[in-house]
Amino acid sequence: MQDLTRCVHHPVVSHEGFASLAVPTFRASTIVYPDAKSFSNRSKRGFDGYTYGLHGTPTTRTLEAQLTLLHGGVRTVLVPSGQAAASMILLTFLMPGDRVLIPDSVYSPVRYFCQDYLRPRGIDYGVYDPLIGAGIGDLIDEHTKLVWIESPGSGTMEVQDVPAIIQAAKAKGALVACDNTWASPLLFKPLAHGADFAVEALTKYIGGHSDLLLGSITVSDIELRQKIKLVLRDMGIGVSPDEVSLALRGIETMGVRLRHVGKVSEEFAHALQESAVVERVLHPALPSCPGHEFWKRDMGGSSGVFSVVLKPGADANLEAAMTELKIFAIGASWGGTRSLIATTALKEERTVIPWTSKGVVLRICIGLEDERDLWKDLSDMLAKLAA
Length: 387
Ligand SMILES: *Cc1c(COP(=O)(O)O)cnc(C)c1O
Hints:
Layout: H1 3-8, H2 36-40, H3 58-71, E1 75-79, H4 82-93, E2 99-103, H5 108-118, E3 124-128, E4 144-150, H6 162-171, E5 175-179, H7 184-187, E6 197-201, E7 215-219, H8 222-235, H9 241-272, E8 278-282, H10 292-298, E9 305-310, H11 318-323, E10 329-330, E11 340-344, E12 361-365, H12 371-386
Parallel strand pairs: 2-3, 2-4, 4-5, 5-6, 10-11
Antiparallel strand pairs: 1-7, 6-7, 8-9, 9-12, 11-12
The protein binds pyridoxal-5'-phosphate.
Protein name: Cystathionine beta-lyase
Pfam family, one: Cys_Met_Meta_PP
Cofactor: pyridoxal 5'-phosphate
């Protein structure tokens, strides 16, 4: 073998006696076959076989299998972001003439996908009151093929009566997808209530460190998985094993992270209600939160994200006060180790239940800093707003 060939052919070394607790990162575009015949027959390997890096490696399959187990599903499909998980379900299961129902509190890019991409292509959507419960049945006509759930809702935090919505939708023959990002599979398992798809933005609690973008779709039926995989293949969409290996590391600590941020977020939500500049705190664990009873009945606890509605006029010094925060960072997305705060605009994003509060809404995500430092930072900011 000449040097140039040696550069390209990695020597085979022994793996004997090597055992690591880490999942190896398998990178691949090409997958090689032991002989010409197995290459010609590669399409017969089925969707669980390895044929091309884009369609899966042992690294991606490990995370998929782990999420499938956590959700009690049949298979999981990984996609490049949480938003892609939503758009892939909508693109796979809706045809021109079909209609999807989304809650008024949906993660807003999902609404924009329906409005700006699907509707001009002949796929319609309707928006429903997230607290509609079994009443969703009345909105499902023969064109409605899919009902989208997100509980609690983005920004306004309404907890949905997920079992009632699923039951009513199934009775009318519609598929049901549930964006479960706030709860993660540790606090809620939509498939156990009959949903067809459990959607997670792995970017948030599973990644856990604000350094990756991934989404997942866990399905209750193998047919649904095959249909999504075909669309991903046709569109050329897959995920990087490097991102997935970060998620495989993140998921190991998700349990302790969530338990901690859930406890602190509940404490802060209660305490913030006492602030002179706060009109309302929207946190599923507070009895005043719309749908609190469903959170109590269905979910195993809280995660770290909630909203605070300031009193009208309390935002005169807000920009300066936020900029002076020392521990909280200003930014969107959430689920990492750093606590975040951001203002959010709800007025333009509610069409069924108008958002009428005049005060500014702050989104707070609790991270892993010492809660005494966090509380001091927040109280200092609120004091500046009251001044
Ligand atoms: C962040 C988020 C998403 C999108 O996740 P990305 O990975 O950032 O695309 C979807 N749904 C909810 C509820 C989210 O909070």
